[in-house]
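Task: fold both queries, return tokens.
Query 1:
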Amino acid sequence: MWTGFSQPCGVLCQLGPELAEWQVKIIPATRIIAPSDTVDVIVRASDGSGLEALTLFATSPVDTIRQQFSVADRHRVEFTFSIPVSATTPAGSRIAIRAVVLDDQNFQVVKHDTVVVGFP
């Protein structure tokens, strides 16, 4: 089950057909991860007018990781991330994964997903 969502409807819903071309996906390789392991995630983004930046955040109860990429002059990107999970992350904790993509017209789309730290 994918739990992604974009910004609430408002100005973005009134932008017309260009917004329909926006695609941002977070695809975790697994939903349950062990402490001291890594979360492998693919992030895909596309936009008809062009992209500017992609930032990925992973937040657990013990750590926050942030990676930012300039993707200027590209219409489609795909990045694979391996996010380390601390050995001290308690079992049952959630790791929130957030991708923030900015296009060349300064519109932003945010997607969220979650994985759970399992018992070793």
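Query 1 returned. Query 2:
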Amino acid sequence: MKADLVTRRFVRCPHGCAHEFRVEHLFERQTNTAGPWFCDECGRGWDWEVTPEGLEITESKTRLYFHKVLLELPPQKESVFFTLASSGQREPGDPDRLDGLRYLYDEHTCITNWLREVEEVKIGTNTDPHGLFRFVNVFEAES
């Protein structure tokens, strides 16, 4: 089997962080400016301009300020269901598949490991339940 080799252009945060900005699409657009884009590590914002010489990057006047938000999921009148985009090594029809998944999600896996896979949250027939969580507090985080 032959694989396609694809080269993509990235720019590391000009402040020296490891965060990489994917910039390939900037060279394919009609407009030649973008930003601000923010570094996930230092929070600095960067404005981008494609020029005949390459890419000009200037620091934006805006930045991100990192924080942690504490939310509470109060008891609900109805069960809250989460649909996940998941995968596994057991084939459909494998008699041990359901027991393996039940163990994985009921006992073995922490919710923070699968929360990023959520495609839908559902209460009854409501697939867009606003106000499910209650804001409790905010804590400053290191950038």
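Both queries returned. Flag for query 2: Helices lie at 97-108, 111-114.
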